[in-house]
Amino acid sequence: MDPVEAVRVNLSAAERRVASLAGRRTVKKEWQAAWLVRAIECIDLTTLSGDDTEGRVRRLCAKARQPLREDLQEALGLANRRITTGAICVYHRFVATAVDALKGSGIPVAAVSTGFPAGLSPFETRLKEIEASVADGAAEIDIVITREHVLRGNWQALYDEVKAFKKACGPAHMKAILATGDLQTLRNVSRASWVAMMAGSDFIKTSTGKEGINATLPVTLIMLRAIRDYREMTGHVVGYKPAGGISTAKDAMAYLALMKEELGNDWLQPNLFRFGASSLLADIERQLEHYVTGRYAAFSHHAMA
């Protein structure tokens, strides 16, 4: 408990740190295009709607295989480079469909689990949901923590819960969704990050995308520094996934810059960094098309599903 109880957060300093990102000169021209291609490779292309269908999931999987139009890829000098999104993220109902649609692509399927998004289903039900998704072929599981454990400071209960989820994941990678918009303070966010990592999480993730407040740069800063401090203390490397509300290429660039400055180039890879997003890819494609042609296309030219 010592590192958890030792957590302190200077709110005004954190806000100043992330506010400075927008005021700096960002990367331009071909360097910006390169960063945006990397952003594509780090997207968990997601559909988590009540009206999801097998057809929509298959179309999304097709987009994951070829996220950038061939003519744009060729114009960027990347004709011989294989570009895919980092993963597809779906409800358990569509795991088997996505696995079939992505067969042979090497693109993993991530399943949201454990009573997503509230995480208030019976504990045994949540464990069985993880096991069912892994059995259907999910290579990654995005679990939801019980927020009450954080709000009441019951860190042992949170540790035990996440550890049990990790065990149920078996060979699948586990991303722990902290639902940071529900945790009230940045100190709670940092402490929850520590406990989730100590319990075996492969990634820590901001949000379900269903909260009133989802991923933000101040929350990201706090979670990245928890990852850095945890690595320095243990030698264990944990990935990071911001999710919810990241819908523009400009947003993506800010997150990539913060990742690079806080954790370095190693974390600008799909194995350690993912965006949880659906509409982000369309805007990145529009920006890359503008770089190539000098004109902006309508969003309908880059439909997701």
TrEMBL record:
Belongs to the DeoC/FbaB aldolase family. DeoC type 2 subfamily. The keyword Lyase applies. SMART domains: DeoC. Pathway: Carbohydrate degradation; 2-deoxy-D-ribose 1-phosphate degradation; D-glyceraldehyde 3-phosphate and acetaldehyde from 2-deoxy-alpha-D-ribose 1-phosphate: step 2/2. Pfam families: DeoC. Keywords: Lyase, Schiff base. It comes from Shinella lacus. It catalyses: 2-deoxy-D-ribose 5-phosphate = D-glyceraldehyde 3-phosphate + acetaldehyde. It comes from the Bacteria. This is Deoxyribose-phosphate aldolase. InterPro entries: Aldolase_TIM, DeoC, DeoC/FbaB/LacD_aldolase.
